[in-house]
Design a protein that fits this description.
The protein contains nine helices and six strands. Helix content is 51%, strand content 8%. The chain is of the alpha/beta class. It has a single domain, classed as Up-down Bundle (Four Helix Bundle (Hemerythrin (Met), subunit A)), CATH 1.20.120. The strands form two sheets. A four-stranded mixed beta sheet has the order 1-5-4-6.
Length: 255
């Protein structure tokens, strides 16, 4: 595969994704996931993913539950309260683990045949709510995400964080079902560049990344280092803990 760029981009020069651009990216990502879901067979929904405890069906049900919470503050609060009781019960390490479990348990009756249509409706409602969220509300630092991110404003999730989650899980589904995910530089490459920029701010090591594939690019920071070459999607899988990382790649970024 070829890389998307031939010269190293200084990470400090990467423009971070703002609210308006995030909403445009979200619309594209929601559709790409829908396209993938419509291509799944009955057997595909039962395939185990890289996410512990989740097959493809459970993973998508989580995304539907998350979208419903984004669209409704009442549903968001319900999931938080339910999740608090479940985190320890399932051996979770973060309060988000309990929320995720509550999303799946509350939607046990959702049949695989109905999931694509449900995703289309709930993701559209979530996007409308995120577009309309007032800037002062988005700036409220109410999210205790823990290490390495710390406390974050609501915009961290409601602008691009939830979209990263959909993107990463789209990759999970594609891997589980042995399908090739749709990847382009203007969409997936933009998401990954933003991830590189955030990740670079979580540690102080110099690096030069040569990320390969349609979503790839060349990035460097703090004077650079010997180039580290790997697939762009695999880079994100490593940061998220789905695959082990060594050297500078030991620094995690939850996705």
């Amino acid at each position: 595969m070829t890389t998307a760029a031939t010269s190293d981009i200084q990470v400090s020069d990467i423009a971070r994704i703002g609210h308006r651009e995030a909403m445009e990216i979200t619309a594209v990502e929601n559709q790409r996931l829908l396209d993938l879901l419509n291509d799944l067979s009955a057997a595909d929904w039962l395939m185990q993913t890289d996410c512990t405890r989740w097959d493809v069906r459970a993973l998508v049900v989580h995304l539907i539950g998350s979208a419903q919470a984004q669209a409704s503050p009442v549903e968001f609060a319900r999931q938080v309260l339910a999740g608090r009781k479940l985190t320890a019960q399932i051996g979770g390490t973060h309060w988000v683990d309990g929320i995720n479990e509550s999303q799946i348990r509350a939607r046990r009756s959702l049949q695989a045949n109905d999931i694509p249509e449900c995703w289309a409706a709930t993701s559209a409602a979530a996007l409308r709510a995120r577009v309309r969220m007032p800037a002062p509300v988005r700036r409220l630092r109410l999210l205790p995400l823990g290490a390495p991110s710390g406390w974050k404003p609501l915009s961290y999730l409601f602008d691009i964080g939830f979209t990263r989650d959909v993107w990463m899980h789209r990759i999970d589904i594609a891997r589980a079902t042995r399908k090739s995910p749709q990847l382009t530089n203007d969409h997936d490459g933009r998401l990954i560049a933003d991830i590189v920029a955030e990740w670079a701010g979580l540690h102080e090591e110099p690096f030069t990344l040569h990320l390969e594939g349609p979503a790839g690019g060349h990035y460097t920071a703090r004077g650079g280092a010997a180039p580290l070459t790997l697939d762009a999607v695999q880079f994100c899988r490593i940061l998220s803990g789905r695959s082990p990382g060594r050297g500078v790649l030991r620094h995690a970024l939850p996705l």
